[in-house]
Every structure is written in structure tokens, then in C-alpha cells.
Amino acid sequence: MKVLMFGWEFPPHILGGLGTASYGLTKGLSRQDDMEITFCIPKPWGDEDQSFLKIIGMNSVPIVWRDVQWDYVNNRVGGYMNPQLYYDLRDHIYADFGYMNTNDLGCLEFSGRYPDNLQEEINNYSIVAGVVARQQQFDIIHSHDWLTYPAGIHAKQVSGKPLILHVHATDFDRSRGNVNPSVYAIEKNGMDHADHIMCVSELTRQTVIHKYFQDPHKVSTVHNAVSPLSKEIQDIIPQKNIKEKLVTFLGRITMQKGPEYFVEAAALVLKRTRNIRFVMAGNGDMMVPMIRLVAERGIADRFHFPGFMKGKQVYEVLKASDVYIMPSVSEPFGISPLEAMQCCVPTIISKQSGCAEILDKCIKLDYWDIHAMADAIYSICTNPSLYEFLKVEGKKEVDSITWDKVGLKIRDIYEQVIGNYR
Amino acid sequence: MKTICLYFEIHQIIHLKRYRFFNIGTDHYYYDDYENEKTITEVAERSYIPALQTLIKMAKDNNKYFKVALSVSGVALEQLEVHAPSVISLLQELSSTGCCEFLAEPYSHGLSSLANEKCFREELNRMKKKIKQMFGQIPKVCRNSSLIYSDEIGSVVADMGFKGMLTEGAKHILGWKSPHYLYHCSMNPNLKLLLRDFKLSDDISLRFSNSEWNEYPLFASTYIDWIASLPQEEQVINIFMELCALGISQPLSSNILEFLKAIPVEAKAKGITFSTPTEICTKLKSVGQIDVPYPMSWVDEERDVSSWLGNIMQREAFNKLYSVAERVLLCQDRRIKQDWDYLQASNNFRFMTTKNCSCGIDRGIYDSPYDAFTNYMNILGDFINRVNSLYPADIDNEELNSLLTTIKNQGEELSALNMEIDKLHDKLVKAEKKSIVIDSDKDSSRKVSTNKTTNSKKKKSVK
């Protein structure tokens, strides 16, 4: 089976959970022998792992015919793509895009991030997708997140193949309810055109059904999973302070993640005990207000903001922690608690997180219940048996959640959709 | 001749309230009064009262033919006294029919039998006293909380003078043996064991109203036929369950009480009698011993103690709780003693189980085992602080005990001495009174006597 996937991020250059999920998912799917995946991203860097799928950089797909030499093309895009593909794609330009701002290869430039002119990039991405869909051979289209929905629709219309959307988040999660109408329009339009919609949690599925008015039969839940830790990360020796306990929050410091509840809970805990430290790692628009709040509560000596962490640093912090907490107000899935559990860290998550649906060996509470949160933190830090239980059983539980199983589930949905199509 | 031993357990937990760690040291009241009142009145109305009325009626109608055994945990009795005294009067009425035997069980419905022998003995004795005081019977047969039994527990119970004990007819213990005989404890042959027939018991308490069950609807005649068709030699049929099975687990609308009422009539027709545990223990001979090296119970498919002590959280809570057992026994503080009873109740540990049950378990106010553990440990933290503040922590228990005995002995000695002083004082007062009376009698001859004394004094001074 051949799948054409549209995505926005792919490791190692990632900005959020979407990239990690895309990687795990494709890797899990590729374990099936007959699965061929072509993954389109706006801007490849050349160091992506292409051993199990083929990556097409949208910034190297021509939409305007340019007469260029093989060597020149090879020089420009050879790092991540076979120059022959460039010529094949060039044969499928479908309209005159001469008015557009293209480069020397006749391609559009992409930032591959989330810039201010995101709408324009989404539109360009969809234009390019038309070329890709005309050239590539595939059985099904799979679009990840709203940025690529227009591209998915375009590809469907060009090829007549079924379209599957993968909802990693909706705008209701990102904005705590104050949706951006233009984003909503794109999402709604995509869902209306889709033949099937996969959601990362039942929570998201309900949002899709009730807020986007979709037929429940065409919406299913496919929970995310985690990739096993690499050797390098497993070998990190935890730097633990015996006298002090460390409670960690890791993620973008934005409204969606509920950082203020964490600060309030920390203040309650620190009223009682002094041997616990709190860390809020990450970056975001709520960081300054949070620093202010911490100062206001008078706990700045025990509450730290180390800033944005990446790669190995994340795991170093996790391994040094005694408690991991994710008090998200609304989290479509939330892969980070699973990573914390992989590092043997007892985890507290909000019931409003999608991952709460598949996790049992962790503490689940309402994000607004700061008393329960404080109590849970205190309990893990003072009762060795609870710490030990969550550490050992949590690790066991998370190790059984694999992308291979997710891959099989997605495969079933593919077969069904293709079977029912036309 | 076959005989049925019917036994009902009455126990309701005292619910703990939501107790955050910042309450430790400031709030010493641990209970959810609203929840307690609500549950106990609900259970009383929906189950205990109608069930007991039925039992009383059965006892009266069948004229001593029907017999039943009951046990009430001390904790439940306390709650019933406060919130549903009518249940107590029904129990007393049932007791006065002479067809009901009361058994002893640990006062708190806790796991002290697994932790602390002294504590276990104390609880059983207290329960015995309470039963005597309320129902005028002295229990001769014992049942442990949730029918927990092991050889060691058996030997303690035998040592306390009980004739018999009820426990589970667990498959892994019995093997090929049948629960329909009387057995005895392997460590003390004087203690007889009555084993529950879980199939026949669960037919009533679990399956009665289940319309998907292939025996549904179950009639008393069928049920008695099952018992009558057992082999001739199998004589004791032990049917044990919670009293709230009648009304709560099996709703009254399933006509379970009508079923129950019909049982003695049907049994009489087939020549099957009813007996209380004590009667069985005295009349029948044991057919052999039962070896139970590890504790068993009537709970869950495993029939062991894993639903209370299965994971490390439960074991930590259990060990922490019983680490202060000796101190609590030594102290005289009534509130601490009361909290001790309520905190021991095994239900508190049950809430923390992480076992996968086919049926969802009722966790009370808690969402998850971790929540239950956290709340319990917070309360325990406060309780242990209170116990430790009674006596300095650096004195070990034995020393403390001897000190307390010395103090107690000295106190007794002092009071004895005081009494003696009082006695002497009384005597003195009496003697003085007497002397006054004598003086007034001799008043007439006073002058003479005084003269005499003055004379003698003068004589002395001359000398």
C-alpha cells in the first residue's frame, strides 16, 4: 500500500509534539512490509532519517518551468532528494504560476516554522501539493494537522484518492475556546472533505464531532504512542539530590498548558515543606506573568525557570526529577508524560489531557484542583511506596504502548476507507 | 441429617473525609459526617430493617426451627447507635427470640490479626463485652474481618477460649475436600472450623437477581433441592454473606426476602434443619484438620489478602498504621482509641487496590488508588503525630510499658494509702466524738478529776 502523507514537521528539526508524533507514526506504519510512505514537509534539512520512508521537500518541488542542468539541481537539492524526482515533478506543473515569487529552480520558499504569514505558507503548500499529487502514485492521502488540510483536499481532488485527516489538535485546544475564525474555517473545510478523520484522543474526537459537526461514524480515535528511548538517552545517569525533591513542568509556557495552576500548587506545598524544588522549563507567552506570580507568592527561591530545553537536555532534566507534572487545561494528547514515565518519573496529569485515556499508572486530577495537585506532589515526595509504585508500574505501562500497535490500527482504518470508497 | 448454618455480617465503614496534607497538625477530625449518615441510613432503610424484620418473622413463624447467626462490627454498631437506632432494637428483638446467635469479630473490622496479636485479642474482647452488654449473649464462636484465617490466627482464637471460627471454603485450601463437613484448626484441635460454601452463598448474594444467570429465577424449592441432593454424608451447609446482600446487592424488588422466607418451610419438608455455629461445634465431630499456612479470606477470586495488602502502597500504609499499635494500646486517650478503631477498618486499604477486577470496585470518595493512598497517609500522618506526642518517642515501648506500670502501681499504692488515711481519719473523728460523749457523761465528776490532775501535776512538779 502506498500512502502520501502531508506533514509540517519531522525530526530532528521539530518545534512541538507534532514532529515527534509524525515520526513515531510513520516508523510504526513502516514496520508493515508492503507499506510505502511518501512524506511531504515544507523544508527538509538533509539530516532526516529517510531509511523507512521517502521525504519530499515542498521547497524543492517546481511549480514554474525552469530549464536547469542536472548538476545544478544535484548541487542544490541532492542532499535530501534525487535530482531525477525534480525533473519528474517538473513534468507535472499544472498551471502558470509565473506571477508567484519563485526562485531559480521554479520553487517556492518555505520557512518550515510557524511564521506570521502562516496563512500564505499554507496556501503555497497546497499549490505545491497539486504538483506532487499529479506526479506520485498512491492509494490514500493522509494529512497531519490543519496546516496541511488544504493540501490534502487539493491532492484528493486531483487524484481521486480517499483523504484521511489526522487531528493532532484543534483550535479549541490551542485557544481555550476563543477560536480564530480563519483557522476554524480551514479545519472545518478539511473535515467536511475528508473520508475519515483520526483523532489522537477521545477528547479530541468529541470536539471534532460536536464543534465541527462531523458524523461520528467517520471519526475514530487513534491514540499516540512513544518510541523507545535511544541508548544514548538510557545511559544518562540521573543527577539526583538526595536531600531535595524536584518537581518538573516541561513544555511551552502558554495558557493551554495551565502553568498558573502549577505555581499555585507549588505555593501550597512550600507553605508546609521546604525540601522540594520546582522547575518550569520551556518558553512561551505566559513565562513573564508566571515569573511575576512566583515572586508574588514569595517562593522564587524554590521555583526555577531554566528556559527552553532541547534534545538531550530534556532527558537530563527528566531523569533528575522526582515528579513530572502536566496540568494542561486542554491537551489533545500530550506525549511528554509518556516520555517522563519512560525515564521512570512518577507523573501527574490533568484529566483534561488525551493521554489520560490510556494511562493508569499515574495520578490524574482536574487541572483547576490545586489542592489535589499539591496533595499529590506532597504525597509522592513523602511516601516512598507511592513513588516506587508509580515509578516501576508506570515504566511497565508506558513500555507496552508502542507505535507498532498504532500502525496496525491505522492500517485497518486505511483498508476500511479504501474498501468503502466509491 | 443435613443442617444449614445461615450467617449474616453487618459492617459499614466510617468514611474518611477529604484531608489535605496542609491539614496535618491543625485538623484532628477525620470523618465525613454527611456521607456516614447518608450511607448508614440508606443501608438501614433499604436493607437492614426489612431484612431483620423478615428474619424476626421467620424466627417467630417457624417456632425455633429456623436459626440464624449474626455478627456486627463494633464500628457499625457505633454508627447504628447514632444514626439508625431502630436497627439496634430490631437486633435485640431478634436476639430475644432465642433463634439468633451473635458471633464475635474484631471491633474495628480491621486487619489486626495479621499485624499485632495483642491488638487482635483486645479487639475481640472488647467486642465480646459489647455484645454481652447489648444483646445479653456471650459469643462463643468467632469470625475474623472478611473471614481472614490462617493457622496462627486460629491458634490465637482458640487460646482465647472460642469454640469455633468461620472461614472461607477456598478451593486452593480445600483441594478435593468438601466444605460440607466440620474441620478443626491444625494448631489447636479444640477450635472447630466452619467453611463457607461459596457457590451456594454467592447464588443468593451475587447472582439472585441476575436475569442472565442460567438458574434465573431461583426458587426456594430448587435451592433446597440442590442442598438435599448433596451426598448423604455431607451434613453442614454453611451459607455466609453480608446482610446488605439482601436489599443492596440484590434489590428488594427481586423478592429476595420472599425467597428467604420460603427456605425454612421448604427445608422442613425435606428434613433439613437449621443450626447456629455453636450448636454445630458442640454437636458434630471434626473430620480432620485444615492447614492454612498463608492467610485466606472471602474476598476476590484469589481468596487471599491481596486486595488489602497487594501492592507496596497498601503495605506501607498497613505497616505505618500498626507501627503505633502498642502505643495506642498503652494510652488512655479516648479520642485516639476511637480514631484507631476507625482507621483500622480494612475498607481503607481496599480503596488502594490496583488489582484489575472484572467488576469495578467502589472507591468511595476517591478517584483512584493513589488518591485513596494520599488521603489515608495524610490522615495517618496526623494520627501518628498525635500518638507520638503522648509519650516521648525515644523511649522504647517496653520501657514505656514498665514506666507506665510503675506509675500505675504507684498511683494504686497512693490511692490505697489515701484510703487508709481516710479510714484513720474517720476513726479519729469517731473517737473524738466518743470522747466528747464520755466527757459530758463524766461532767458531774469533772471537778474532782480536775482536782486530781492538778494535784498530780503539782506532785510531778515537786519531784
Which descriptors would you attach to this protein?
heterodimer; A: 422 residues; alpha/beta; Rossmann fold; 2 domains; 7-stranded parallel sheet; 6-stranded parallel sheet; B: 463 residues; 7-stranded beta/alpha barrel; 3 domains; 5-stranded parallel sheet; 5-stranded mixed sheet; 12 strands; 53% helix; globular; disordered C terminus
Explain what this protein looks like in three dimensions.
- The complex is a heterodimer of chains A (422) and B (463).
- In chain A, the strands form 2 sheets. Chain A has a 7-stranded parallel sheet, with helices on both faces. In chain A, strands 10-9-8-11-12-13 form a 6-stranded parallel sheet, with helices on both faces.
- Chain A is an alpha/beta fold and 422 residues long.
- Chain A contains 16 helices and 13 strands.
- Chain B is of the alpha/beta class.
- Chain B has 3 domains: 3-290, 7-stranded beta/alpha barrel; 311-390, no CATH class; 397-462.
- Chain B has helices spanning 33-61, 74-83, 85-96, 112-115, 117-135, 151-159, 171-174, 198-205, 220-228, 256-269, 277-283, 306-309, 312-323, 325-330, 334-344, 347-350, 369-390, 397-441, 446-462, and strands spanning 3-10, 68-72, 100-102, 141-143, 164-168, 182-185, 192-196, 236-242, 246-247, 250-251, 273-274, 289-290.
- In chain B, helix 13 runs parallel beside helix 17 (369-390).
- The longest helix of chain B has 45 residues, at 397-441.
- Chain B is globular.
- The chains are: A alpha/beta (422), B alpha/beta (463).
- Chain A binds chain B through residues 268, 271-272, 363-365, 371-372, 374-376, 378-379, 382-386, 388-390, 393, and chain B through 20-22, 24, 311-313, 315-317, 354, 367-368, 370-371, 373-375, 377-378.
Q: Note the gap between the termini of chain A.
A: 18 Å
Unreliable stretches of chain B: 457-463
What's the gyration radius of chain B in Å?
30 Å
Structural class of chain B: alpha/beta
Interface with most residues: A-B, 22 and 20 residues
- Kindly provide the name of the CATH class of the largest domain in chain B: Alpha Beta
What is the CATH first-level class name of the largest domain in chain A?
Alpha Beta
